[in-house]
Amino acid sequence: MTLEDYQAGQVLLIDKPLNWTSFQVVNKLRWEIRQAFNIKK
What we know:
By secondary structure, the protein is an all-alpha fold. 51% of the residues lie in helices and 0% in strands. The chain contains two helices and no strands. It has helices at residues 3-7, 22-37. The model has no long low-confidence stretch (mean pLDDT 90).
């Protein structure tokens, strides 16, 4: 996926671990995307 895909509102299907909350999953994805594309807050 490209940065443009995420900025355009790409939908991701997530099968989260049972012991993770939805908030934890979203935070992990945000962090990974920011690291992959070198995006600042």
